[in-house]
Amino acid sequence: MQGINYNWFGEGILFADDDIYSHMLLEKIFQRTGAKLFHAHNGHEAIDIMKKSGHEINVAIIDIIMPGLNGYEVAYLIDKNFPDVSLIAYTADTVSLDIEKCRQCGFIKLLTKPTLPNRILSEINNLMTVKNKL
Fold it and tell me: pTM for the full model?
């Protein structure tokens, strides 16, 4: 992950995924950005974290297939209650993925697993840059 250095101090990123290896990968990817990373292992936990820390979170990266609430449901609830949070769908299941449903639930980006670390960083940086310009 050489190259561009990102400075996201004061920014919060929620990562909701039931796969522990995805959490470890994202932790590694974001460790040098200065962002505060919030981890949720299922949909209900993601909503609980948003209720407790929602105003600290700027971006939510959400797996579509999770136990309990799925990613569509989580995105809908976050978008409804925290409209300033940028939502990114993060999934390996592109076969059954419903792009229109993603849009309706509030997702503004889609990243497929596996995704190169530099692409994840670049996409989030684009969202942070746009947010900071508004």
Answer: 0.90
Cβ–Cβ under 8 Å, residues 90 and 59: no
Considering the domain 12-133 in this protein, what is its CATH number?
A: 3.40.50.2300
What are the two backbone dihedrals, phi and then psi, of residue 10, each rounded to the nearest 5 degrees?
A: 85, -5
* Rounded Cα distance, 14 and 39, in Å: 6
Report how far residue 91's alpha carbon sits from residue 21's, in angstroms, rounded to the nearest whole number: 13
Spans of all domains in the chain: 12-133
Condensed to tens digits (0 to 9), the pLDDT of residues 66-105 reads 988 999 999 999 999 999 999 999 988 776 778 889 999 9
Q: Give CA–CA dist 40/23, Å, rounded.
A: 9
Tens digit of each residue's pLDDT (9 = 90 or more) over 8-52:
998 999 999 999 999 999 999 998 899 999 999 999 999 999 999
DSSP assigned state of 32: T
